[in-house]
Amino acid sequence: MKWKIAAILLPAIIVISGVYGWHEYQNFNAVPLTRLAAGSYYPEMPPDEYHHYLQIPINHQDPSLGNFTVFYLLNPEFKGGENVVFWLCDNQQEAVGLTTSWRDFDGSLGGLSYVLIGNRGVSPTLFPEVLTKTVP
To answer: How many Å apart are CA 32 and CA 38, to the nearest integer?
Structure first.
């Protein structure tokens, strides 16, 4: 009897896990519908002494295209006037802008003050028009 239940549950769990995994994968790779408006900030990262936003021209040769917002984060134990590491995050660090824990960065840098820089194309500074080939 237990084998019959296991024979039914195991495939069901595998199918449900596969469907869920596929859904999460599609969600992760979905083209964003909007981007952060110039002058705005991410609700989960309001500007404060550790979260800083800058306005950068979309195209330096054509200022009429407007600006986009970039950000940088200072670690919670940041000490000005000491050695500082500038950590430019690449596209493999998808959640840098949403970082709630600094453990990974702190462990890598051994107590140094550092600045995490979110560049264009790194979540959450994605440009939907780049991925959809349309201009806002």
So the answer is: 16
